[in-house]
């Protein structure tokens, strides 16, 4: 592997590490979506919730601003009592009745499972690319690029499953939620998809053999790389 190619791989790998870090941040945190319900009377208790792939957190606080136009709880960052619990289908001893009432658990299980596949693909890709720096093992760049591409695709599929889950909760007449917004964990997941997918394609292009410089050259009789 020549120095120019090695430099390109290192630069691409550094961007991949950023994407993997964002992916891990999205998977382990619980700020994918924030939900709030309708407020009928001010100076009353309002309940809001934010959740991720594994855990749901609810928060209660008092609404005292009569000038507020929106009849919802507002931002979840307001001070109040916070109660977090893991989803019942992941931790049987925990209780998450609010979540079980408002969406199908299949959505949560699917999103979490696909995210785990994404993490696995990213780990295998990293192992391959680290081994490719050894002498005569640069052939591992191609599988590494494919694993990173698959990791990005799995992450965006998990994002879409989560988005559909939130949409069903808002549209359902059986729920109290009327307003939602996606939070920073959701943004981390989307950004990791972009970085991993683009860098996976870039690594694949870098790993390809040198194309003939002249039209009359063929791949077999082109000058070998030094």
From TrEMBL:
Bilayer topology annotation: Multi-pass membrane protein
Pfam families listed in its UniProt record: Claudin_2
Gene Ontology CC terms: L-type voltage-gated calcium channel complex
Keywords: Calcium, Calcium channel, Calcium transport, Cell membrane, Disulfide bond, Glycoprotein, Ion channel, Ion transport, Membrane, Transmembrane, Transmembrane helix, Transport, Voltage-gated channel
Membrane-spanning intervals of the chain: 12-34, 109-133, 145-162, 182-206
One GO BP annotation of this record: regulation of calcium ion transmembrane transport via high voltage-gated calcium channel
Compartments where located: Cell membrane, Sarcolemma; Membrane
Membership in a protein family: Belongs to the PMP-22/EMP/MP20 family. CACNG subfamily.
Quaternary structure, from the entry: Component of a calcium channel complex consisting of a pore-forming alpha subunit (CACNA1S) and the ancillary subunits CACNB1 or CACNB2, CACNG1 and CACNA2D1. The channel complex contains alpha, beta, gamma and delta subunits in a 1:1:1:1 ratio, i.e. it contains either CACNB1 or CACNB2.
Name used for this protein in its record: Voltage-dependent calcium channel gamma-1 subunit
Species of the source: Platysternon megacephalum (big-headed turtle)
Lineage, highest ranks first: Eukaryota, Metazoa, Chordata, Craniata, Vertebrata
């Amino acid at each position: 592997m020549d120095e120019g190619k090695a430099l390109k791989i290192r630069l691409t790998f550094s961007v991949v590490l950023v994407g993997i870090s964002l992916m891990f941040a999205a998977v382990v945190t619980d700020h994918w979506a924030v939900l709030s319900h309708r407020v009928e009377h001010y100076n009353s208790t309002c309940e809001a919730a934010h959740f991720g792939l594994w855990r749901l957190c609810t928060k209660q606080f008092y609404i005292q601003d009569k000038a507020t136009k929106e009849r919802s709880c507002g931002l979840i960052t307001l001070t109040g009592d916070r109660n977090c619990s893991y989803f019942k289908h992941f931790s049987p001893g925990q209780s998450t009745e609010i979540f079980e009432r408002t969406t199908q658990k299949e959505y949560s299980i699917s999103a979490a499972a696909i995210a785990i596949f994404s993490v696995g693909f990213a780990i295998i890709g990293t192992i391959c690319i680290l081994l490719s720096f050894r002498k005569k093992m640069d052939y591992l760049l191609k599988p590494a690029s494919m694993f990173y591409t698959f990791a990005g695709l799995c992450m965006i599929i998990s994002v879409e499953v989560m988005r559909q889950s939130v949409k069903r909760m808002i549209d359902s007449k059986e729920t109290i939620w009327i307003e939602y917004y996606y939070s920073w964990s959701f943004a981390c997941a989307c950004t990791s998809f972009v970085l991993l997918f683009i860098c996976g394609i870039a690594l694949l292009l870098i790993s390809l053999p040198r194309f003939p410089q002249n039209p009359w050259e063929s791949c077999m009789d082109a000058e070998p790389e030094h």
